[in-house]
Predict the structure of Threonine dehydratase.
Amino acid sequence: MEFLCLAPTHSFSTNPKSTKNISIDCTSTMGRIMKMYQNMRCSTVRPSALPLKMSRIVSVPDISAPVVSVPAILPEVDPGELIVNNPTGGDRDELFQYLVDILAAPVYDVAIESPLELANKLSTRLGVKFYIKREDKQSVFSFKLRGAYNMMSNLSKEELAKGVITASAGNHAQGVALAGQRLDCVATIVMPETTPQIKVDAVKALGGNVVLHGETFDEAQTHALELSENNGLTFIPPFDAPGVIKGQGTIGTEINRQLKDIHAVFVPVGGGGLIAGVAAFFKQIAPNTKIIGVEPFGAASMTLSLYEGHRVKLENVDTFADGVAVALVGEYTFAKCQELIDGMVLVGNDGISSAIKDVYDEGRNILETSGALAIAGAAAYCEFYKIKNENIVAIASGANMDFSKLHKVTELAGLGSGKEALLATFVIEQPGSFKTFVGLVGSLNISELTYRFTSERKNALILYRVDVDEKSDLEEMIGKMNSSDMNTLNLSHSELVVDHLKHLVGGSANISDEIFCEFTFPEKAGALSKFLDVFSPRWNITLCRYRDQGDINASVLVGFQIPQSEMDEFKNQADKLGYPYELDNINEAFNLVVAE
C-alpha cells in the first residue's frame, strides 16, 4: 500500500468524462448480480489528483498486526484535504460473498430505506449537487440498527434463547435493544457509568437490560466480554464483525439505487464498520465512485492507522463527536479499509458544528455531532479542491443529540462556517480608546464582546466576535486595527478560548508560581472529589472553570500555585490521576487573556 498526502493548490482536472462499458457473463452468479445493477450505474473514469509527497507504508493488511499507542497528532493537514489510500483490492471471492450477503441482509424487518435528499442551499453554496443520506430518519435515529439486526438475525435459535450482550454508550446500544425486542431475545447492554441518563432511558424503553459499569467504554466492554464468557451470551460488536459490516453495507445498495454517477460518497468513521460495508458494495458495483472516510482531527484513529500501515491506538480521544470517538479501529474493518477505500479527510469541531447548522437551515432538523461529520468532511473537500458540478453524497448517520451540547455547537457553528470570527484586540487603557476601537470595527457587526478594565496592564484586552460576510472585510478590519497600534489576533479556531478564556478576560492576578492546566474529567458523580483528593490541600487551587458540555467527558480549566521545585511531583500526581491534561501556560491564547 502507498500513502499519499495531497496538498494541491488547484482544483481537480476537469477533463471530459469517459464511459467504460462492462461486458457481463450472465451465466455466472456474479454476472447475474451485475446484470441487476447494469441499469443503475454508468461507470465513469475519474481523473486523479497528483500527489506532492509520497511515502511507502506497510503493504500487508494483517488483522493480527501490532497495536501501537500514539498521540492523536498528524502532519499538517487542512480540513478537507484528501489523505489518499491506494486500495489493495482484497480477496475477490471474499468480497463477492460480502456482496451476496449485503444484498440478502434482512435489515428491512427493522429499518426503512432512508431518503437521499438534495441539500439545495449547500449545493448552491458549493457549486455541486450535494445529497444527504438521511439515516437519522430511522426509528432509533441512527444507522446502527442495520448491523446489529443483521448479525443477530443470523444467530441460531439456541444462541438467541441464551441472549446477547454488547457494550455501548450510544446508538449501537439502541440498535441491539431494538433487534432483541424484534427477535424475542434478551439483550444486555453494558454502558459506562458516565453515560447520560437520556441514553440509558432510551435503551430501557426498547427493552434492553442495562448494566452500568466503569468510567470508560473500554472498562464497559471488558466487563461485557467477561459476562459473555461467563453466561454464554453472544457478544454483538459495535463494528468489528462481518455480520455487522454487511448490515451497514445495505446503505450502499440504497444510495446506488437512488442516484447514479456519484463522484464520491463521504462516510463518518468511528470503528470503521459503516465505511467497510459501503465500500464492500460500491467497489464491486460502481468502482469509480470514491469512498472517502471522515474523522475529527482529535479522533483520527483510522487515518493514523492507514498512515502507519497497521492499527494504532490513540492515547487521548476528543469526544465532541462522541459517536465516532474510538481509540482503536477494528481488525476486520481496518483490513477492509486498506483494501477498498480511496482515502480519509479530517475536520475540526467547528466544521462539524457548522454542518449541523447547515442541515438545520436546510430543513429544520438537528443532527448529532457524529451524524454531521460526513457532511462537514464532504463540504470541506469540495471547498479544498474546488469541486464543481459533481454529485456528492454524505451519510447523516444519526440524530441522537444531547440537548445540553447544543450551546457549544452554537458557539462553534459560526466560526466553522467562516461567518463569524473570534478576535482579541489590545487597546491602551486611556479615555476614548474603547470608542476608537468600536469605530475601527466599522461595518462589521459585533455579536459578542468581553472587556474589563485592569490596573495591572498598560493595555486592555477586548475579546469579541464579529459577523463576517466577506473574508476580505475581516482582513481589512484587522489591518486597520494593527496600523492603529491596536494589536489584533484571530482566535477563531482556538477551542480553549471558546470554552473558557472568554469568561476570564480581566481576571489575571499577581500570584506567584501560578500554573494552569486543562483537565478532561469524566462526567460522573465523584469525579471532582477524586481530583481534589489528589491535589488538595497539597497545592493551592487558584482558579477553576467548568461547564457541562453534554458529553461523556468535560473540559475543566484549573489554576494551581506550584513552586518550580515541586513541578515534577505535580506532574507525577497528575499522571497517576488518569485524567488527560495539558499545561496551558505555553498556550499563546491563554497567555494573552489570563497570564501577566
